[in-house]
Amino acid sequence: MKPPAWRADAHRYPHAFTLQPRYADEDRLGHVNNIALAGYYDEARSRFSREVFAAVPAAEISRIVTADSRVTYLAEVFYAGPEPVVRTGILRIGKASYDLAQALFQGDTCVGVCTTTFVQASAEGSSPLSEALKGALGRWLMEGEAS
């Protein structure tokens, strides 16, 4: 299913992370393979999350787990092309979860999008996000339409 057009607008995403493809990411046709692309989103999520969590006291964050992650491939990514850039922002902040939106660009072309839902969990199940964490996430909230 094709995402809404606004998801391909780089200016909507407040955070950017440039990646350098590895030789092992290339397939026989000169493309970056889909497994590597999923790893690009993961690496950018990790970098983004470190930045967000650094602004929150450790006692205010318990275990954050991935509940869902969906990648939509929109175009080929070429190993020999411009370095890919993953742009990231927060789509939604809920009581115990939040949605992170990402778009992968090669040059000016949006080549894919990813949406990931994170839940704060305890041994008993989901637990409410602290106000400090909600505030830190809110600084990266995307403007405009939600998915």
Summarize the structure in short.
With 147 residues, the chain is an alpha+beta fold. The protein contains 2 helices and 6 strands; from the N terminus they run E-H-E-E-E-E-E-H. Strands 1, 2, 3, 4, 5 and 6 form a 6-stranded antiparallel sheet that branches.
Provide an overview of this structure.
- Strands 1, 2, 3, 4, 5 and 6 form a six-stranded antiparallel sheet that branches.
- The mean pLDDT is 93.
- By secondary structure, this protein is an alpha+beta fold.
- The two termini are 13 Å apart.
- The protein is built from two helices and six strands, in the order E-H-E-E-E-E-E-H.
Helices and strands in order, then pairings?
Layout: E1 15-18, H1 34-53, E2 63-73, E3 84-93, E4 97-106, E5 109-122, E6 125-126, H2 131-138
Antiparallel strand pairs: 1-3, 2-5, 3-4, 4-5, 5-6
Write down the Rg: 16 Å
Residue share in β-strands: 25-35%
Unreliable parts: none
Give the helices and strands as they follow along the chain: EHEEEEEH
Number of strands: 6
N- to C-terminal distance: 13 Å
Number of helices: 2
Which range best describes the helical content: under 10%, 10-25%, 25-40%, 40-55%, 55-70% or over 70%?
A: 10-25%
Question: What does the overall shape look like?
Answer: elongated
* Category by helix and strand content: alpha+beta
Mean pLDDT: 93
Q: What's the main sheet like? A: 6 strands, antiparallel
Question: Any descriptors?
Answer:
single chain; 147 residues; alpha+beta; six-stranded antiparallel sheet; 2 helices; 6 strands; elongated
